[in-house]
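#random but structural
TW: two for the price of one
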Amino acid sequence: MENFVNPHRDNGHIVDIVLVMDDGETKFVNYDAREMNSYSHNSIPKDANLVNFSQPENPEVQLWYVDRLVTVGKDYITRRDRAMMHVRQLSSVARCYDEMLKMEEESGQKYDEILRIREDGYLLKNVPLLHEIKSRPGIATCACDSWRGVNDKGTLFLREYAETVLTGPLLALTKDNKSLFSKDATINNPETLMHSVFKTSHASIDTDSNILVLAPVRINQYHDIEKCLDMMWFGGCWECRYRSLINQTTVPRCPIRDPRGAKTALKHVKCGEIK
């Protein structure tokens, strides 16, 4: 609201909010996301359009996708179960597209730009409209946490690419689309899949500027503190690009910073080496 909705409304733009949420017992890609989902329900803007959407419990997954998923660091889950979680996540994203079409039909007007944010995404700075940027990319994502693809915490894009961005990854994941990748290519996360799908739109994709800067904020528990919000940032990209923004943010944070050991890992990082 503070870094996108309110500033653009103040400038005379019409900004509608849609929240696709699941009240059921569906599993999420990240185990701590369920509590974040509950937290989000307590923070819904009054004028938001809330869509209760039940994610598929046992979705079909393509064998080509399961076989290519990387398992390093994911010993707690099988490739197939991981792929099913990705289908659930992308099903919610695709539901956003359906709701957008419905709202456009009701208003008789099409939107100019769309900003999609995952339930744990937190904007660290104001987000400009792509129409107001000289280079005007068709799609913009955050530069960090891309995992050999594009950051999936959020995407800002022009209306003409809405179908590709919101429904393309799910369609690619539920059909025989292994042609999106080379024969020996592996898939780390949904980010890898999304990047391949976005490229099929032939849009100009900005993954390296400061147009969209957002980090995941999740509920954690530390020592004697019952629950707190924690900004989960790590890696040289964040240290070199957005350290000042992280220090300036007003989001409530846990007293123990960098839960994934970012500072320790960054002792040997030189910003000039980060691309």
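TW: number two ↓
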Amino acid sequence: HFNYRQWLIILFYLASSTKVRKVYPFVLSSCFLRKKPSFVHSNNLPTTVVWIEEAEDGFVDEDENLEKGEVCLKVLKAFANPGGRFLSAGALVKRPSSSVCDAWIADALPEDDSQAIVGPNLVFKGARQILDALFLFHLQQNNNSDDETSIIGALQTFVLQCGASIESECTCASFMAGQSRGFRPLKDQIRSDSIYVPSLYENNLEGFVFDVTDGKDLYYGNNSSLRNDSSKSNDNSAVANDISLLLPNEETIQRFTTKRYRYSNGD
């Protein structure tokens, strides 16, 4: 079975070769390790452009970084100006003999003091852009507009891997990006009323899946801001808008929701 702790590959070197390793090769910058990051919003901060690109060939090495039968479908990196500072990276990997895909996302570490000014806000934005791009790619690849069940299957087979909490080394901002988009622990989703069924994951319940009820509101809210303010494109709103248009309506969600009974005191 897929081993989460053995396959922590999406934490990246900033060296010129820049390849993914199966272990965490670096830790977060000191601004993350000394205290919990504070995601600050201020109109006084200078505008900084964050963007994503396809990673270079060989960034994920098939022989060194993938388990037998795994297939890497897409690899992205996030950068910010000035100087194209490396923020984060992510890869979408299909599990062996399964339709489930894991989106591995992690934060980058500045390789010298000149890059240390990259704060958690920028890393968070880069990680969220990567998450949205991988999520949209997966939904588009697996959705059939003529079959409403296909979008449910696409949601069920996308699992985010970004550390376990805000305290996670090297994945703090990536974890927060997942939370901001409505991704919740798979273990919790299969214990509550949801579209997720444990048999699909072959007892591997690590990671986060999209809470289609709460998360849909988050993407729809972004959709609304895009319609009202075209300047939001720097915050990835166009991709969020495309995602919101693919998400199932409430009737479809309810039809594919598994009701689970929970006992309370006195029952």
